[in-house]
Amino acid sequence: MRRPLIAGNWKMNLGLGDSVRLAEALRTGLGSVPDRDVAIFPGFVSVAAVARAVDGSPIKTGGQDCASELDGAFTGAVSATMLKSTSASMVILGHSERRHVFGEGDAVHAKKLQRALDAGLLPILCVGETQAERDSGATSAVVLRQLQAFLDAVPTLAFPKLTLAYEPVWAIGTGRTASVEQAAEVHALLRRAFRERAGAVAEDARILYGGSVKSSNIAALMAAPDIDGALVGGASLQADEFLRIIHFQRN
Fold this sequence. Notes:
Layout: E1 5-9, H1 16-30, E2 37-41, H2 44-53, E3 59-63, H3 80-85, E4 90-93, H4 96-100, H5 106-119, E5 122-127, H6 131-135, H7 139-152, E6 163-166, H8 180-198, H9 201-204, E7 207-209, H10 218-222, E8 229-232, H11 239-246
């Protein structure tokens, strides 16, 4: 059985002090989690302080994105090596907001993946369709195209380091959640496609669900055979709610 991962993406929320206080509250309230992993992704300016706040606990810390370039004249960008120097161990890549708000395409995210792996960061690779793409029946084509761009960018030896995340764009921050059946269908599709490229490695790869995850729906989502955790947005900003999600009980 794959070990679940519950990850909190704080997005562009919380200053340094509030980020540290939230991290400390999570550390205090976490207790024992021997059968699952936990990670939090604060804004870049808080990553180092949050990493210190959870040091020695089971909570891992990561960045919400990294640059596609190694270094140089890219004002405002954060390289993978910079991120690694903050004690981050993970990074989110290909998030829908990077794709649809910032206009970054598959090729950019593939290059970011190369930089992240070179820096020693473990990536969470996001794929997902818009409402219009789902309505037009293009879900499979979209998520498979996004996945293939990632897989084509790295050697097969790197595949065991990859975590996938399915995040339907229409369910992010909207209060709408894909039904368990809808989510499970796409997760199974991703697993099959990954298996075609990676063989048995795909059976151990974690595929997270992201899209208005909360304590009231996490157990039902986690009951699906190919859903191995959650990439949580707004609910991860509330310590009590995020802890309830982390401590979900299997059905």
